TrEMBL record:
InterPro entries referenced in this protein's UniProt entry, alphabetically: S-AdoMet-dep_MeTrfase_Alr7345, SAM-dependent_MTases_sf
Organism: Roseiterribacter gracilis
Keywords: Methyltransferase, Signal, Transferase
First and last residue of the signal peptide: 1-15
Gene Ontology BP term (one): methylation
Record-linked SUPFAM superfamilies: S-adenosyl-L-methionine-dependent methyltransferases
Name of this chain's protein: Methyltransferase
One of the record's GO molecular function terms: methyltransferase activity
CDD domains in alphabetical order: AdoMet_MTases
Amino acid sequence: MLVTLTALTSPLAFAADAPKNVAAAVADTTRPETDTKRDADRKPAEVLAFTGVKTGDKVLDLVAGGGYFSRLFAGAVGPTGAVYMFNPTEFTKNSKNPVPANGSKPDPAHPNITFVNTSINELKAPEKVDIVWTSQNYHDLHKTYMGEGFDIAKFNKVVFDQLKPGGTFIVLDHSAKAGTGRADIESLHRIDEATVKKEVEAAGFKYEGSLDVLRNKSDDRSAKVFDPAIRSKTDQFVLKFRKPN
């Protein structure tokens, strides 16, 4: 069954109605202020509830950046779960900030997070996971700095293989105009969601539905996502795919 969910209540009201593990993760007082200041735009309670994350789950946060969602997932899965915070070397090689060593625990407040830092072509989680998550980075996997040997079709199959049967792959990204395919990736950092669906389903995933809470009809999708007029308020899609049992 395909499901499209919309936000019918305020974020705070939804957080109160969210699954207990999700509400606790959002309310976690160890979350840094730099994270909580972003909650109004990122709607973490709604988004995590949509993923279906449960206590004890194993999660791979794909191209995790600074770990905003890694910390949320760490709270949601609890001490019996695990979060693998993956930042590929293709993304970190020019970073001015120290990159945690592969296999290290980068966040003392969330010891169930383990850092994974390898080439994206060598991605392999320490164990099969229940959820693979990527936020605002799927479009980056098509960019020129990925190298000539990178193949998005092969990569989606790698993601498929990281999941347990019945596991889910969630893709959140900036929306491009319908029908534009990959045309706006380099210039606007946006991708057509129909292209994402086509590519992910080709790896064997089954599309399950979308979440509309990050949609913004006032974004005409013609501006670069870093434009101050639209930054943090772009029209974004959240798509859920499942690996068949």
